[in-house]
Amino acid sequence: MPLSLQDMVIKFPLKDVKGKYKQIYDEELKVHQERLENILLHEEHHLELAQSISATFFPGSEIARRTGYEFQFTEPLCETRRKNFDVLISNQRNGSIILVESKTFDDEVKRDRMKDIFKECSERYDTILQEKGVLEQQLSHPVKNIDICMIIEVEKEVDVLRAYNSIGPERGLKPIMLVYDRMGNRINLAEGFHLRDRTLNREFHNGVIPGSEDLRIDLPCMIQGHPFHIFARTILANPVEEIKYFSRDVLENELSKIPLGCSGREKISLISSKVDTVIQHLLRYEIIREEEGRYKIVSTGIKRMKIADAIKDKYIRKWTEKKAKESSLDRLQELLMVDRSLDQY
What we know:
Blueprint: H1 5-11, H2 17-56, H3 62-67, E1 69-74, E2 87-91, E3 96-102, H4 111-130, H5 132-139, E4 145-153, H6 157-165, E5 176-181, E6 186-189, H7 198-206, H8 227-234, E7 245-246, H9 248-255, H10 264-284, E8 288-291, E9 294-297, H11 304-343
Parallel strand pairs: 3-4, 4-5
Antiparallel strand pairs: 1-2, 2-3, 5-6, 7-9, 8-9
C-alpha cells in the first residue's frame, strides 16, 4: 500500500514531493478521464449492438417468421455469475441456437485484442456445453446445433477483418462475424462468413433490418453492465419530467425488464445483487445519498435532462479524481524509491 502524500514529504525531505505529485496527478487525471469516457461510450455502443440483433429476431418479426429463429434472452447463464455471450437466439423446430457476442473497438484494432476475443469465445462456449442441460430447460427444447457469432459496427469492419484473418484457429474459437450498419439500418454477414442454416445464411447475405419500431425489444441495459451505465439507462432515462429521488424497488423493477434465461428466485437474487452493486458504486462516488429509505440524486435542479447531464459530468470528475489520486501516489512512491536507490551510487 502506498504512503500518503504527507508521509512521503516527511520521508523524502530533500525532494520536491508536492511539486512532482502535482505533475504526475495532472497526467493521470487526463489518462483516467479518457479511459472512463471510452468505457461509457463502449457500454452504449455494446448495448446498441445487442439491441439490434435482439430486435431482428423479435418474435413476430419477418425474419423470425421466415426462418423459425427467435430471440430468447440476453446473457445466457448469467445466474452462474460467469460472463457469457450477450444474446441467445434459437429455432425450436430444429434445436439450433445462435449465441451472439457484441464487440466494440477503439480506433486501432490490435491483434492481441482479437486473440483475447477468440480465447474468450472458447471459454464461454465450454461453459455453454457444460451447462447445456440448464439451457435446454430454460429454452424448453433440446440444443442440437450451436453457432457462435460476433456482431461489430460497420465502421470497424475492415480493421477487424484484417486482425481476424491474421490469427490462426489454434488461438481459440473464431466466431462468425455479423456487421451492423447503423446508417443503413442493416445487419449483414461479413464477406467470407457463413451460418449453418441455409435460409438464415441467405437472409444475412442479403442484409436484414434490425426490427421495426413496434417490435423493439425492451432492453434498457445489460445485467452485467457497468454500474453507472445501468443507473443512466434506468433511473436517469426515466421519462418522468422531474427526478430527484428513487427507491431500490424502482431500480429492481427496471432491471426485471431485462429478458434473462433464469426466473423465479434465481432472477430475483441476481437482480438484487446487481442493485446492491449499483447503489454501492453510486454512494462511493457521491452520486446519491440515502435519505429516509430512499436515495437522493445529489445534483442541483430537478429537471430530468439537466440532472442527467450534470450527474454524468460529476461522475466522470469524481471517478477520475479518485483513480488519479491512487495511481499518482503509486507512481510517485515508485519514482522516489528509484531516485533514492540511485543516490546511493
